[in-house]
Design brief:
Layout lengths: L1 E6 L6 H12 L1 E5 H11 L2 H11 L6 H14 L5 E5 L5 H15 L5 E6 L2 H15 L2 H4 L1 H15 L2 H7 L3 E5 L4 H13 L1
Parallel strand pairs: 1-3, 1-4, 2-3, 4-5
Helix pairs in contact: 1-10, 2-3, 4-5, 6-8
The protein binds adenosine monophosphate.
The site of adenosine monophosphate (AMP) has 18 residues, from helix 2 and helix 3.
């Protein structure tokens, strides 16, 4: 099994690219954000707990998302691997992922493909997405700002973490969907 991470700030186009890339390489696209929104929609205990945190633009506790990922890894068959979108988002999550892969699957993260976009573009894209998808956490600029701040303080340190392991591959995210997709595919094929 291959394990790829699609990395980048909110609004970088991770979801759009992950759908295309996972189809191209028969990977399972795993979006922790989508899984959490599903829990919220179904009104589960986990969803009720996560709703408040997500609506404020903060991160849900590491144990919760790691547990969701572990469940998916252990119950999925028939794919070449996984494309993680929006996970890990903290150094602690990354360490828990490494440990889980090593112990449960005798595997490792293969590549981290990072979509680079500016904060100004994040704002612009999330604003547009709010009109299309109606996500509560996309709607107010104060929440978007929290999510960008959270990204810079808690998630960005992962860049160094994966650079040190020689797994970090940045690509320019402010291009057309097709161009970004081509660059991502080239990295996976390498
Ligand atoms: P996303 O769809 O990836 O932008 O995620 C939406 C929201 O879900 C985030 O702003 C967080 O509140 C929460 N979330 C998604 N993935 C994670 C994660 N790996 N760790 C913590 N919270 C997460």
């Amino acid at each position: 099994m291959k394990y790829y991470i699609l990395f980048g700030p909110p609004g970088a186009g991770k979801g759009t690219q992950a759908k295309l890339i996972s189809k191209e390489f028969n990977l399972l696209h795993v979006s922790t954000g989508e899984l959490l929104r599903k829990e919220i929609a179904e009104g589960t205990e986990l969803g009720i707990m996560a709703q408040q945190i997500i609506s404020e633009g903060h991160l849900v506790p590491d144990d919760i998302v790691v547990g969701m990922i572990e469940h998916i890894f252990s119950t999925t068959e028939g794919v070449n691997g996984f494309l993680l979108d929006g996970f890990p988002r903290t150094i602690n999550q990354a360490k828990m992922l490494d440990k889980m892969l090593k112990e449960d699957e005798h595997a490792k993260v293969d590549k981290v493909i990072s979509l680079i976009i500016s904060d100004a573009t994040i704002f612009e894209r999330i604003g547009k997405r709010a009109e299309v998808e109606g996500r509560e956490d996309d709607a107010a600029s104060a929440i978007i700002k929290n999510r960008i701040d959270t990204y810079h303080t808690q998630t960005e340190p992962l860049i160094e973490y994966y650079k040190e392991q020689g797994k970090y591959y940045p690509i320019e995210g402010e291009r057309s969907i097709e161009e970004v997709f081509e660059s991502a595919c080239a990295l996976i094929k390498e």
